[in-house]
Design brief:
Layout (H helix, E strand, L loop, with lengths): L37 H26 L10 H9 L2 H9 L6 E4 L4 E5 L11 H10 L4 H8 L8 E5 L2 E8 L3 E8 L2
Antiparallel strand pairs: 1-2, 2-5, 3-4, 4-5
Helix pairs in contact: 3-4
């Protein structure tokens, strides 16, 4: 007599359709659990939120509360100063910066001249070099070098610049030159 065909089922110890997580071996290691994508999704969402928050803080700090642009950083001011006509004149006439200082992001040149009592500062020769480099006309230069202590603070302008100065024999000539806007 012919044997009936094999039919998997509970009586044969096999399950149909085959399931890899099912085994009849009681000592076999359990299958590894399925990995959840939830931790990765949470980590990605947290990273995105952190980036958005950081960007918001950076923009808020740059703009300030009023929405205006932030003041230039020290590095930005140094870059602007190095491109200014004052920097070029300072390099030629006061290489060691003994009596000049560039301020306001390169838009102002402050000159501290040497005097009879205050010998530290810019010499008259270096001051003449600076005003020549900045294209100061003879009319303003004559006013400046004819200023007396009794005259107080004087001013002069020429295309692209304005200057104010005072003079005292003990302290020398003090000058502030600004670029016109």
């Amino acid at each position: 007599m012919a044997q009936p065909p094999f039919v998997p089922g509970p009586q044969s110890g096999q399950v149909w359709p085959p399931n890899p997580s099912y085994t009849t071996d009681p000592f076999a290691a359990p299958p590894p659990p399925k990995k959840s994508r939830l931790p990765w999704l949470l980590a990605a969402a947290a990273l995105a939120a952190a980036l958005v928050a950081t960007l918001g803080v950076v923009l808020f700090v740059q703009r300030g509360n009023s929405g205006e642009a932030a003041a230039p950083s020290a590095w930005e001011q140094e870059q602007a100063a190095s491109a200014s006509p004052f920097k070029s004149a300072q390099r030629r006439c006061d290489e060691f910066q003994e009596g000049t200082k560039i301020a306001d992001g390169g838009k102002t040149l402050i000159i501290d001249g040497a005097g009879e009592e205050t010998t530290a500062g810019l010499s008259v020769t270096s001051l003449e070099c600076l005003v020549k480099e900045l294209g100061m006309p003879e009319s303003v230069k004559a006013q400046m070098f004819d200023t007396r202590a009794l005259d107080g603070r004087q001013t002069g302008t020429w295309p692209g610049f304005s200057a104010s100065w005072s003079y005292h024999p003990d302290d020398g000539m003090d000058v502030v030159i600004t670029q016109a806007k």
